[in-house]
Design a protein that fits this description.
With 79 residues, the protein is mostly helical. The chain contains 2 helices and 2 strands; from the N terminus they run ββαα. A two-stranded antiparallel ribbon has the order 1-2. The chain crosses the membrane at residues 12-30.
């Protein structure tokens, strides 16, 4: 059987390269999706911490005298 040549390469090689390219593409998309999911989760965690922080700031405006020690103990509880 005669192997057809295209761009100086046997067709079979081009098919192998195509398959490798598609596999690499799928891998890249999966990796990208995972990292986006991770980023979203991280962003959500940061948002929650920010909300907590702003709540503390508001409380501090209400009752500045006993605020600092409570903030420290709450932060210790969380870790």
């Amino acid at each position: 059987s005669e192997i057809t040549y295209q761009l100086g390469y046997p067709i079979i090689w081009l098919e192998v390269l195509d398959i490798a390219f598609i596999i690499a593409l799928i891998y890249a998309i999966v990796r990208f999706g995972k990292s986006i999911k991770h980023d979203l989760k991280y962003t959500e965690e940061m948002r929650k911490k920010d909300e907590k922080f702003f709540r503390y700031i508001k409380e501090k405006e209400k009752e500045p005298e006993n605020f600092d020690s409570r903030l420290i103990s709450d932060l210790k509880k969380e870790d």
